[in-house]
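Our working data are protein records whose layout never changes between entries. An example says more than a description, so a record of this kind follows.
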Amino acid sequence: MKKRIIFLIALLAGAQSLSATIWRVNNNAGVSHDFTTIQDAVDAASPGDTIHVEGSITPYDADVYVNKQKLTIIGPGFQLASNVETQHLKPSAKMRNIHFTADSCMIAGMEQLEPTAGVTLNNTQAGIGVPITAWSGYRLFINASAIRVINCKLNMVTIENDQPLESITISKCWFCPGMIRTNVDQQVLSLSILNNFFRNDFNNAGFVVIDLHPNVVASIGNNTFYGGFQVNAPQNCQIYNNVFFATLNRVTTALTVNGPNNQYNGNIYNIENLGGMVNGVNYNVYNGTSTTEATAPNWFAASGGIAIYDKYFLTGTVSPIRTAATAMGITELGMFCGLSPYVLSGLTNIPAVYEIIMPSEVSSDGFEVTVKVKAH
């Protein structure tokens, strides 16, 4: 009964046309499904279909090739046990490598399997656009236009196009540690990197989290960057309303944002100098000591909350970072602000069944079941 209720709500919430099909992917033993692998669902799907990938303790396909237009892949979100009112079933849907080669597709609510021990994470030796040959973790590859990557937990997104592309959106995702790169010199128009959380707890100050070619036109806005990192945005980029926080043990090689032809506005940062930000309105709240959480209480939601990093940067009433930014004239700061704010646990905009209450004993005369649903 629970599975039928959950599927019915997802079906009603899909807002698909009458000709579209919603496919269920589940690799748990003993659970009804249409397919056990994402690739089988893609192969069977038609343009306009939706593929719901359900949570599992077992990761899904080693490689998925999305080669049909207008497909939507939706998972349940990530870190579902870390926040309240997320999903009744807590496992996420973990993917490995996924390749988008057809236009107008979307992926949301999925979690990329994290790199295993021994995977090389150091990409500081790579210049702008130079492929990172040392990276052996999983990737999300894009070689198509009108691709939307929303509400996912990712390691690396590579735009590896052999043709000019446009309208690529990477929004409300968690990268830990992770990066977005363009690996070839083809033009990419309208790349939107918005409301993401880039966290680097790897002990490397110069970890390149965004690395773009000069022929990429990008908007980099309302992101939160935490740890040690570097952003390479050569030109034609708008960089606005971002939080740049470099931690003490990673500030020695500094945070640099390159690009003399970029437009900067409303960014806030905690180190003495932020390279490249020479125009626009940006704010430096560095005071000689505020490079760690303990000495920068005006940056974070609550002391001791850093285990759940995305929640720690909430900019609601419990967080003084909004007050500090407002005093400086910035009203839409970081990943929890802007037109489409970051959502905890990567929940998508379909209703989620977050609690099911059933009696411990049932009878043939019937019984009551309470289902709690929340839209995010």
In short: The longest strand covers residues 174-182. Residues 1-17, 117-133, 250-255, 286-291 have pLDDT under 50 and may be disordered.
